[in-house]
């Protein structure tokens, strides 16, 4: 489903005229329907891998080969902006710790729109969105409210609902349980197990190693590929 070959990424702070390494020579493979967990210390580049797959970041070297239903084998680093927009809408989901939404859009509208984007009819989209919000214990009083004033946990649960309801072929999880209580974590785990059973491929970053137990088929451990000193 996804193969990363010799991925390298660094960040330049122009006003300091300094370049800092983030990833160096990262290679990994995820089989279709598998779940790869990525572990490592803070700052080791875990999130940078996921953002590179999602093309939020553009690495300087390497390849990310994705088996797309629409495009066949495609290098995500060479994909056109139009292809990336399509893949994000139809094939690749991303859950982060943070929720960035358009203003004046309610929680129910956000989840419904996720389904409309993949061609679900309006009535069914609303019904499935309500089921998702109910599953993740979003109080029904909040469904028609704007998420800007939600708590951190409520925003995260909404973010997860928007991603999993689309049942993407590949789902990227960047600390999806970071600010959740135990009951909410169990809801997330239940959804992940359901997606996995349906054939979704998953890559996840978790500091909660207990949560990962029994979920991941394989674990990729970030090692100290580069020293943290400034590159020349």
TrEMBL record:
GO terms for cellular component: plasma membrane. The keyword Transport applies. Keywords: ATP-binding, Lyase, Nucleotide-binding, Transport. InterPro entries: AAA+_ATPase (IPR003593), ABC_transporter-like_ATP-bd (IPR003439), ABC_transpr_CbiO/EcfA_su (IPR015856), ABC_transpr_LolD-like (IPR015854), CP_lyase_PhnL (IPR012701), P-loop_NTPase (IPR027417). It comes from the Bacteria. GO terms for molecular function: ATP binding; ATP hydrolysis activity; lyase activity; transmembrane transporter activity. The keyword ATP-binding applies. Residues 2-230 form the ABC transporter domain. PANTHER family: IMPORT ATP-BINDING PROTEIN (PTHR24220), OLIGOPEPTIDE TRANSPORT ATP-BINDING PROTEIN AMIE (PTHR24220:SF676). This is Phosphonate C-P lyase system protein PhnL. It comes from Caryophanon tenue.
């Amino acid at each position: 489903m996804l193969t990363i070959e010799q991925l390298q990424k660094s960040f330049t702070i122009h006003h300091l005229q300094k370049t800092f390494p983030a990833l160096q020579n990262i290679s990994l493979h995820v089989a279709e329907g598998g779940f790869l967990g990525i572990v490592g210390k803070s700052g080791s580049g875990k999130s940078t891998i996921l953002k590179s797959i999602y093309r939020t970041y553009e690495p300087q070297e390497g390849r990310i080969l994705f088996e797309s239903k629409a495009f066949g084998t495609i290098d995500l680093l060479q994909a056109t902006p139009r292809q990336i927009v399509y893949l994000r809408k139809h094939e690749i989901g991303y859950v982060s710790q943070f929720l960035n939404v358009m203003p004046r859009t309610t929680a129910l509208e956000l989840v419904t729109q996720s389904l409309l984007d993949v061609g679900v009819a309006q009535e069914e989209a609303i019904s499935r969105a309500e089921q998702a919000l109910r599953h993740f214990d979003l109080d029904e009083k909040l469904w028609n409210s704007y998420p800007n004033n939600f708590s951190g946990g409520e925003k995260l649960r909404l973010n997860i609902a928007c991603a999993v309801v689309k049942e993407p072929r590949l789902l990227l999880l960047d600390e999806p349980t970071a600010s959740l209580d135990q009951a909410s974590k169990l809801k997330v785990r239940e959804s992940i197990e359901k997606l996995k059973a349906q054939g979704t491929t998953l890559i996840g970053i978790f500091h909660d190693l207990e949560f990962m137990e029994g979920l991941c088929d394989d674990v990729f451990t970030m090692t100290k590929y580069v020293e943290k000193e400034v590159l020349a």
